[in-house]
Amino acid sequence: MARTDALIAAASSYGMPAWMERTYLDVEVWKYLAIIGLLFGAFVGKQLLEFIVRRYVRAMLARSGLHYLEKTSKQADRAVGFLTFALIIYLGLPLVDLPAQSEQIARVAARALTAVGGVWLAFRVLDVLFDFLAGKADKTESKLDDQLVPILRRTVKVFAAVIGSLFVLQNMNVDVGSLLAGLGLGGLAFALAAKDTVANFFGSVMIFIDKPFTIGDWIKMGDSEGIVEEVGFRTSRVRTFYNSLLTVPNALMTTAVIDNYGARKFRRYNTTLGITYDTPPEKIQAFCEGIRGIIRAHPGMRQDFYLVEFRGFGDFALEIMLYCFMVAPTWADELRTRTQLNIEIMRLAERMGVAFAFPTRTLHVDSLASPGTGARPHKAPSTDELAAIVADFAPGGAQSRPRGVKISPGHDAAPTPHGSDDDAG
Fold first, then answer.
1. What does the alpha-carbon distance between residue 391 and residue 29 come to, in Å, rounded to a whole number?
2. What global pTM score does this model have?
């Protein structure tokens, strides 16, 4: 008060106008002007500090190559400016010397603004930190860190929100101890209400520890299937093949049976080739050996295990079982490898004179057949000719074309998600 009186006396000695000493609502006019000047100074300081920090941070990010942090750093700049604005008001408020009751209200409001600015800045710093970690995670081959960063972001920000709220309330002269004691009385009811949330949280922890799937995998769980897009604090999100978004509680994910197609090392191809009944035995054997040679010659096929065998006699065809595996990370790669394999098998059949069967019915009427009009006997190639054909389709053979014939540059579609399959549609 003495300092204020001295300031008033000094101002009066320099000729303060009388109208500035008039009072409205028990507050002199010059104090209103001082408050306006304080707000203007705080605004100027806020803008100046934001400009300096923005220039410095932008230059630092440019030198470090962290351009993806510019958007988050701008939000942090605004938080720094707001905190500066609140601090200038809080520190300059005693110089105005408001009445006791008004000063008490103003100081509480200034402390609350300062606390809010500090909490806001803490949130923006956490955003910058986790964006930096997310950028580092994107550069690694492992998807585990991509799954961990969003969970850590949400968990840390929830704790920061709780602590920041208590900090703001304390600066507003609220008895935080009594508040926490009152919350303790309702702890049991809160725990009962939040038991599902707690179960989902521990479910997310178990997903991270057990790693039944990672982001980008195609999973099937009960009647639902799709691509895992996000593993959150409480739920996981799966993008179905109908492009809808499926939200699954993490507690359910830990108890359900999950079939992870994305974890497959090989993709199975199991089919039956039906050839006509008039195919000679030697040609059947050579045809099976030729298909084995095609598999051995294709770099996209699993080489240590495959089965090509004459399995049995069907209703209208001799059945050859083809059971093999492909090394294909995506569905598109699988379809391309399967196409190349099938085309090579067709080329082999055409070269050997093997005909594929289809449901037919043959009717022989001997009484109507004229002499010399019967079916001509089929001349089978010799054993040496069949062996030469098999060698031509084996690895390094003259007819070996595991990648197919290059007809055009092709029109490939965009890559499909990891783990997808031909059953996706």
1. 106
2. 0.50
